[in-house]
Specification:
Elements lengths: L14 E2 L4 H14 L9 H5 L15 H5 L7 H4 L34 H15 L3 H10 L8 E2 L20 H5 L12 E3 L1 H12 L10 H8 L13 E2 L4 E3 L7 E8 L2 E8 L4 E6 L6 H17 L1
Antiparallel strand pairs: 1-3, 2-3, 4-5, 5-6, 6-7, 7-8
Helix pairs in contact: 1-6, 1-9
InterPro entries: Beta-lactam-related, Beta-lactam/transpept-like, Diverse_Enzym_Activities
Protein name: Class A beta-lactamase-related serine hydrolase
Keywords: Hydrolase
Length: 303
Amino acid sequence: DGGGLGKPMSVQHRMRYLSLSKVLTSALSVKLVRDGRLNFDDRLVDVLHVNGPYADPRIAQVTLRQLLSHTAGFDRLKSGDPMMVPAPWCPKRPAQLAESRLDFSPGDRFAYSNLGYCLMGAALERVEERALASLITDELLQPTGLMGLVPVKNGVQQSDEPRLQIHPAELFDVLNGLDYDSMHATGAWSGTAADFGRLMEKIFISSPPDSLLDPEGRRLLTEVAEDCDIAKWRHCHGLGLYRYREEDGPAIYWRDGSLQGGTAFFAVAEDGQIVVWAANSRQPNWIPINDSIGRAIYGYIKK
């Protein structure tokens, strides 16, 4: 449904990338590391200049690497997601970190966290002394000529977006009330599916001088723990993506996204195939549906 009931979707429609936006954050982070401008093993509190005492002393142990790999200690299933409220404290009030409590010790396990990526964005802003949206534009988009990728604005649906289809069990007011200005590191970017694919090609596939990352940067962005079973779906996550491979197929690296009125999925295969899938709706039980989409895309890539 493009602009209203009965109007078809088009590949020219602007789609919300949702959590595919995190790939921009992780790719930018790796690029800065390869440029010698960032160190993944730096402590978050040092980068953000957040001094103790800390309500949870383990906060002082969190590294930038752990933020990207979702192992920093934040678990939204236990303590909620502070990014899904109208006025999140991150990234504008980093001092609040000193009052925060972790759900597990840093490095102990994986737990998907929007807050972790928001804090990574705040760290990038502090290191580079520039707004994250400007950093992403200058470092990733301008060099590739993909200036059509822009953040969603608070309370605004662009004229080139398809109409968002909100499930009756979910509320549009919740979606419309999100602070997208605080979500540039986590889920605010938009553009066509084709342009996202073109950007991923520059990050993962292209040869110099057209590539955004060198081979070591690509390795950093895609590697997962050596002992992780990549035959398990949604199981092995590195600094930017999940990795998955069936016994008789290629490895893929993937990320998905979901919010009211939107679903997104991206995969790049080790043989260079790239698939970007985006929709203007979702179901409340979105995780198994996204998993089905991902497995179907893997089947397509295998052929």
